[in-house]
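Handout, section 4.2: multi-component inputs.
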Amino acid sequence: MEAAIRAEARTTTVATDIEPAPRHRRVPRINLLPYALIAPAVLVLAGVLGYPLGMLGWLSTQHYGLRELFQHQGEFVGLQNFVTLVGDPEFRHVLQISLVFTAVNVGLSMLFAMLIALLLERVSSAIRILLSSGLVFVWATPVIPAINLWQWMFDYEFGVVNWLLTRFGAGNYIHHNWFENPFQGFIVVTVIVVWGAIPFLALMLYAGLTQVPRELVEAAEIDGARPWQVFTLITVPILRPLFVILFSLSTIWDFQVFNQVWVLLSQRPSKDYFLISVYSFQESFRVSQYGLGSAAAVVMVAILAAVSVFYIRQTVRLTTEDAR
Amino acid sequence: MSRRTFARTLYDGVGIVVFIVMMFPIYWMVSTAFKPGREILALTPVWIPLRPTLDNFRTAMNVPYFWNDVVNSVVVVLTVVALSIVLAFLAAVSVARFGFRGRTPFIVMIIVVQMVPLNALVIPIYLLLDQVGQVDSLLGVIAYYLAFVLPFMIWTLRGFIANVPVDLEEAAMVDGASRVVAFMRIVFPLVAPGLVATGIFGFIQAWNEFIIAYVLLSSSSKQTLTIWLTSFTTQHGTDWGGLMAGATLTALPVVILFLLVQRHIVGGLTAGAVKG
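Output:
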């Protein structure tokens, strides 16, 4: 982090040098214009995101139930909410499920996206155009309509997935309720998340692959490297920065999955389906324990912040290289 | 057939299969929307609508509050885009064209802010607006969407502006134009397509947002289209044809706009990320 910021500061000075400032004016005069330009955006971000974020932290130290909601005044309880959460086996289970869910979804999304990116590199140009436009269509589909359409595809009575699975001999799925068993329910959630995540990741990875210098690959092939070796020894190291960005972005997105569970299960998910964001929402808006819900949200933000460090470091580093 | 063409044909075949698997859900949504009830509720799926009908679209549009919520969505989204594009443009100019103390912290803040999950913020946002009596008002939603689209817009616009060489501006200034005139005459026209693309992307993000609108807008007459969609049920269980028609209608503007700007935005995203 530190290093990245320092690197950024270096370009900043470079940019100042280019600035067409009159030469005789050696004493730097503070130019207020850039500050005036960012001021409105900073005000909006600080007021509309910064303030609530601070309040979230404050709320997590409060007992804030229905009575407090009417009085608009919480009761300070220190770290009691966090102690409650840590001591609560249910919350520990929620945290576990969320971590496993994130790992599985990120892994599967990246795996399929990488395979599709490699495929895009190898198909004829007509098929490449066809497949990448298909990916763009899926990417463009908004998440709520997407959840509804998967709900229909996995419908208990007339779901086309049930029919296909039965038809192709995977067992009898006619009148199969996917949501009775949370494990199967999470398979459906995973399908929706991964299907929605693949296009962005695959197109980014494909764009990355096209940047790998052709000479390097050919040189390796002449030296007798097998395709697998070319991939692990040349492609992967060159694409490392991109991998870091995509892995951390996917982790950030998948760890806060909410809509897929909430809308898919008709806004009444059972306890088995509580991911951390669902738990926090449920505690706050269904059980009216806003303090406890906030504490769970703080845990979520803290974990996301840890992952974000990798993403931010890589992005800032690339931006500085860009400017150089 | 040589080994090479064989491999190519094989890959093409796999490519077509992947295409079908990825696209099928969308096809199924749209085709269901055009099917009459008997073809939707068929134990053996009807793959192509045999008697296409617009009945489902009519049903969807007649569900209470559809048009009302379309108007809400449009009002919210257009207000957000109009305001945010101005704020984002000013900030992006500052970041792309000036070196100033605090520039790096500002850039880091822009990136950090994008990582803050709205799922977590919705709790304090609800309580704050509840205290000032602004729950269930479009104004609160507009304010939050504004902050929610701003960071991404500043980030993208910064790239578009930075791509216009400073030399062009300086040349105009050498010819006697003031800094502001040089900027408006030279840089602005070159950045205009970027502004449109960024504005459209903001439109899409705001149109698709769910959780803030879901919590804040409780009365049916105030809701946006995504919320309308999740409350789409009748007394007789789910009307799948109507729901798929509603989903298609909700998705349609976004898909069209996305296809228009996708090239610009993807270019902006990848340009930095794949260089060495």
